[in-house]
Amino acid sequence: xxxxxxxxxxxxxxxxxxxxxxxxxxxxxxxxxxxxxxxxxxxxxxxxxxxxxxxxxxxxxxxxxxxxxxxxxxxxxxxxxxxxxxxxxxxxxxxxxxxxxxxxxxxxxxxxxxxxxxxxxxxxxxxxxxxxxxxxxxxxxxxxxxxxxxxxxxxxxxxxxxxxxxxxxxxxxxxxxxxxxxxxxxxxxxxxxxxxxxxxxxxxxxxxxxxxxxxxxxxxxxxxxxxxxxxxxxxxxxxxxxxxxxxxxxxxxxxxxxxxxxxxxxxxxxxxxxxxxxxxxxxxxxxxxxxxxxxxxxxxxxxxxxxxxxxxxxxxxxxxxxxxxxxxxx
Amino acid sequence: xxxxxxxxxxxxxxxxxxxxxxxxxxxxxxxxxxxxxxxxxxxxxxxxxxxxxxxxxxxxxxxxxxxxxxxxxxxxxxxxxxxxxxxxxxxxxxxxxxxxxxxxxxxxxxxxxxxxxxxxxxxxxxxxxxxxxxxxxxxxxxxxxxxxxxxxxxxxxxxxxxxxxxxxxxxxxxxxxxxxxxxxxxxxxxxxxxxxxxxxxxxxxxxxxxxxxxxxxxxxxxxxxxxxxxxxxxxxxxxxxxxxxxxxxxxxxxxxxxx
Lengths: 330, 259
Ligand SMILES: Nc1ncnc2c1ncn2[C@@H]1O[C@H](COP(=O)(O)OP(=O)(O)OP(=O)(O)O)[C@@H](O)[C@H]1O
Ligand SMILES: [Mg+2]
Known about the structure:
Chain B: InterPro entries: AAA+_ATPase (IPR003593), ABC_transporter-like_ATP-bd (IPR003439), ABC_transporter-like_CS (IPR017871), P-loop_NTPase (IPR027417), PstB-like (IPR005670). Chain A is built from eleven helices and two strands. Chain A is mainly α. Chain A has one domain: MetI-like fold (Orthogonal Bundle). In chain A, α3 (about 85-120) runs antiparallel to α8 (about 225-250), α5 packs across α6 (about 180-205) and α6 packs across α8. The relative contact order of chain A is 0.14. Chain B is of the alpha/beta class. Helix content of chain B is about 35%, strand content about 25%. In chain B, a hairpin with a 6-residue loop joins β9 (about 215-225) and β10. Chain B is globular. Classes of the chains: A mainly alpha, B alpha/beta. The interface between A and B is medium-sized, with 27 and 31 residues. The complex binds adenosine-5'-triphosphate (ATP) and magnesium ion.
């Protein structure tokens, strides 16, 4: 800030008088520094207190448990002796999320790409608006819709998969029943996270500098080659973040999954058959009827979910950081 | 492998706005042609119309003819992608692909034409192009480092190497030195001098000395008024334009007497 333009007579010291030595921290800077440090600290404290809460509350059940917590598929924590394990929950959570990601990531990126770089401007604006709206729909709505509307429509897909891809174990259906399956839950999750993924990737796609785009086009790139040369490399960190946000939502989604799955505690590899369970749905379904050890067991399963999401996030961060030097940021 | 360009009666539009009107000019093979003129008179627009980069802007189109050795670039069954492979372009701001190494930047265009090349062949083309852009000695030890880690002048020569790696017929340059220091500018001017042995070069510049130094032919563009389209006022041998222009406006512009 120059002081030469100060009206004469104001008691502001001239820059010459103030000199250039010495730290001059303005009040605004100090307030902002305090605020941002405080906010950072608050987040860390919250994370720590959640972790501590989960560990402390989980200990009684883990001590009472007579089965292997990680490999058992039973869930009888309030019996004596207590018998419970998370294997089925891990399986159900991971499988529904994989189904959701396999469907939602390519489709979400495709939609974002279409909106950002292919659609005529009018259509792009309208589509962008609709995806943003969809991202805000509460999950219970998706759950009801999935249960009532999607389930009957998914039967055909399940049968088709069984007939033509049944040689792949996950698509085999030996029961002839196709409702309340991991596949349906995964599809509903996919639809739920699709707008999140496409809204965020669209945001980064439109931020790709014109320079990069024209660099590719001027070399004689087709539109798709331009996307691969300029858009994807620039947007990759954003695409990974978007996928991770979607995955986070899929892993933790409770109510929609609880509505759709018919809770069971075995690992059924046939994902078109009824059954399966996830961490979040299990907690929601069991919480009210659980005794003291039952509650503690649910908290223990919550701790595992917490760790899984942390690991997934850190993994994503590592991927982004690995080639930071080659990123579009410099 | 250099070709001539003949433009007849070209009108260039951004939507309903006519940016350039009635441009007619010829560009000789293996020569350097400079476009000069005040800001906003349509030099970049004209340049981008020569390799159909103009139309990547939504709503932009042209009317008229641009012939490359007699073949109409805007003909009905001409693919703009092929036009851009034949007529390369270097931009005002260096724009190497930031996620690619120096070497990959140079050969990026070669990966687009559908022919598979061996790594050794690509390495060889990369070296030849970098030598052609007078950059080889500076980067030969760090070919696998990111291109964005180079200085501005080096990045611009990297972009030139990338453009000449695909062996275009014509090379278009839009103020290639305006973001560079005098030393880098001289390096690029020397390079243009060498490149004209092999390519037809068209360069837009605001630097009159530069136009005088590097070009054989100079075209002066001007605006007849605000909101009016730009026009090619006159085009002639560079010596003539700078010593003995036929138009008063050209005279005023090159002597610095300009609004
Ligand atoms: N993307 C665009 N959309 C609409 N109008 C544009 C666009 N780009 C340029 N124009 C207009 O076209 C006219 C010519 O612009 P152009 O960029 O060709 O000028 P220029 O001679 O290159 O100027 P400069 O010397 O400042 O680079 C200007 O009136 C400009 O406002
Ligand atoms: Mg320009």
